[in-house]
Amino acid sequence: MGQSNSLKHLALQKFKRNFWGVFSFFFIILVGILSVFAYVFAPDDSQYANQMHLSIHSQKPGFDVTMLTIPSKLEGEQSWFDKLFFGKKNVSNEIPISDYSIENETLTYTEYAADGLEGAEKNIELSAFPNQDAEAFIAKKTFLFGTDKYGRDLLSRVLVGARISFFIGFVAVFISLVIGVLMGSLAAYFGGKVDAVIMWVINVTWSIPTLLLVIAITLALGKGFWQVFIAVGLTMWVEVARVVRGQIISTKEVQYVTAARALGYTDFRIITKHILPNIMAPVIVISAANFAAAILIESGLSFLGIGAQPPMASWGAMIKDHYNYIILGKPYLAIIPGLCIMSLVMAFMLIGNALRDALDVKG
After folding, report:
1. Which of 151, 172, 202 is the last residue of a domain?
2. How far apart are CA 173 and CA 290, in angstroms?
3. Is the pTM higher than 0.90?
4. C-alpha to C-alpha distance for 263 and 313, rounded to whole angstroms
5. Does residue 284 share a domain with residue 177?
6. Can you tell me the distance from the alpha carbon of 216 to that of 230, in angstroms, rounded to the nearest whole number?
7. Cα–Cα distance between 214 and 14 in angstroms, integer?
């Protein structure tokens, strides 16, 4: 036990000395916090950050406009927990305006119109909102990342979209670990026909292109949020299984395993208590790589339109919606979510390399 603790301490010290590994670790923690509490940080806290203002579509980062907010009259109880994690359902109606005046309990405003056009003039009777100051309805709103082609706040969409990319990594890696460790352990420990059958399944799965297999599973399960999570996880267990199988084959004949057999321990206990804890280093490293791969696959699926479905925010879907804007002079609409994907994938690859060095995984 003392030796185990000292090895863990040495690995931790080695990891701490890797600047990019530590930087990536804190970056991933930051993205995790932002994705979990996306609606707290997002300027648009409506469900899926889906407030559309077509009059201010495709505006540049830093764009600001005067916003008239008309409180929603829809009644609906929503718990604070629901608002915190899933956004507000009954949101106020926001209208971008260029001018307004208040006279005799009547608010007259001119709707915002781009390209020097004159917006329509409309009235609101303030008597419909008693005990509320008219000036409280009007405020300056800044869109730090600009707006997308539907006039939605791009920063809010990016923050809410981080959830899908971040959590698909966790779910996919969890599924791949459960299946991969189980199949790899059974194949290596029992050998013979069990090994032959499992290796046949592994080789068949390995031979099918990953994206094609994910698309097939997604079409079988149906389009949607959780279906993509499961589909990606079901395609990633193969690498884990091969690594676990190789490690157990080289470990199952060592002295402590032979001693455990001599003491009459069950196969289940030998695998879970004695073998697996000693081969987890390469599995941890491959899990970090799988995390990055899951994010890229989900982005590819969303780009193809079979990932998370509208109005859900997804980085891949945001690129799909705006890739043609690259040649229309507004490349940031596609570049911003693209940079988000790249930075998160890079962070997982760097932390995987750092863990590999720290745990001194060979081959």
Report:
1. 151
2. 6
3. no
4. 56
5. yes
6. 12
7. 37
Q: Token pair 């916003």 is at which residue?
A: 67
State whether 221 and 347 are in the same domain: yes
Chain-centroid distance, C-alpha 64: 29
Asked if 310 and 338 sit in the same domain, the reply is: yes
Tally of residues, the chain: 363
For residues 313 and 164, what is the distance between their CA atoms, to the nearest angstrom? 8
Q: According to DSSP H, which parts of 191-276 are helical? A: 192-207, 210-221, 225-235, 237-251, 255-262, 267-269
Residues 6+ apart with CB under 8 A from 324: none
Residues 231 and 254 in one domain: yes
Instruction: Check whether residue 207 and residue 349 sit in a common domain.
Output: yes
> Residue 359 half-sphere exposure, CB side, CA atoms within 13 Å?
19
Both 335 and 250 in a single domain?
A: yes
How far is C-alpha 229 from the geometric centre of its chain's CA atoms? Answer: 10
Q: Are residues 211 and 120 in the same domain?
A: no
Q: Which residue in 71, 117, 73 sits closest to 94, CA to CA?
A: 71
How far apart, in Å, are the Cα atoms of 87 and each of 91, 153, 310? 9, 14, 16
pLDDT tens across the length of the chain (363 residues): 455 567 778 888 889 999 999 999 999 999 999 999 999 999 998 889 999 999 999 999 999 999 988 877 665 677 888 888 888 887 788 899 988 888 887 888 899 987 777 888 888 887 777 767 767 788 899 999 999 999 999 999 999 999 988 888 888 899 999 999 999 999 988 888 999 999 999 999 888 887 888 888 888 887 777 888 888 888 889 999 999 999 888 887 788 878 888 888 888 888 888 888 888 888 888 999 899 999 998 888 888 888 778 888 899 999 999 999 988 889 999 999 999 999 999 999 999 999 888 887 444
Say whether both 172 and 269 belong to one domain. yes
Q: What is the number of H-type helices and E-type strands within the chain?
A: 14, 5
Residue ending a domain, choose from 118, 151, 184: 151
- Per the structure, the complete domain to which residue 61 belongs is given by 53-151
